[in-house]
Amino acid sequence: MANIASQKKRNRQNEKRRVRNVAVRSELKTRVKKARAAIAGVDEDLTEVVTRAQKRLDKAASQGVLHKNAASRRTSRLMKAANRTQQD
Predict the structure, then answer these.
(1) Measured in Å, how far apart are the chain's first and last C-alpha atoms?
(2) How far apart are CA 54 and CA 58, in angstroms?
(3) I want to staple 65 with a disulfide (CB 3.0 to 4.6 A). Which of 17, 60, 82, 85 is the partner?
(4) Number of compact structural domains in the chain
(5) Which range marks the domain in which residue 20 is found?
């Protein structure tokens, strides 16, 4: 445990951020999983589910939980998969 006040504060801040980031990542995984299931053919409104997942990816990137290029890559792959199923 740190003795320096600024390091104690930094540790508290890091813990708050870690807990928030875990929640954001968990929700992100859930939304992407639901979008992939909808793409695979499970009966739910495809465009709505994919849009929700895309919005969550962008928000995670803007919060710094996810790198912006990683969010962009995941969004791109999700959209490509969704477009492939809509063309068939």
Answers:
(1) 59
(2) 6
(3) 60
(4) 1
(5) 5-87
Residue carrying structure tokens 């299931």: 37
Q: Work out the average pLDDT over 32-51.
A: 88
> What DSSP string describes 17-84?
HHHHHHHHHHHHHHHHHHHHHHHHT-SS-HHHHHHHHHHHHHHHHHHTSS-HHHHHHHHHHHHHHHHH
Q: Using the 8-state DSSP alphabet, how is residue 10 labeled?
A: H
Token look-up 């390091």 returns 7
Reported as a single tens digit per residue, the pLDDT across 24-36 is 999 999 999 999 9
pTM over 0.90: no
Structure-token match 């951020």, residue found: 17
